[in-house]
Amino acid sequence: MTAPRDVVERQLAAYNSHDIDAFVATYAEDVTVHRADGSLLEGRPALRDRYAGQFAEGRCRAEIVGRLTEGDWVVDHEIAHGLAAEPVRVLVAYRVRNGLIDRVDFLG
Is the pLDDT of residue 82 over 90? Predict the structure, then answer.
């Protein structure tokens, strides 16, 4: 079985290389993404739709400044570049089950 940390790292590499197929492949079919604004994405198709535009523009990149792991959970302290005029600091919690990310919580 792949360690949760490795799955999240593979997801990060796909995000930073703007590889939408590799990015989506790290997520479960029924993934739920709880965004900081209170909105919810459900399923791989919604995830693909949400990220496809910014990947196509090649404008996004995440830098990890800290990472904690416990059981199925990986929590990253990220600095997101290319999404706003200034870098955005955020905490993101990823739950990994059966080798895929099945839940994401943006905490700020």
Answer: no
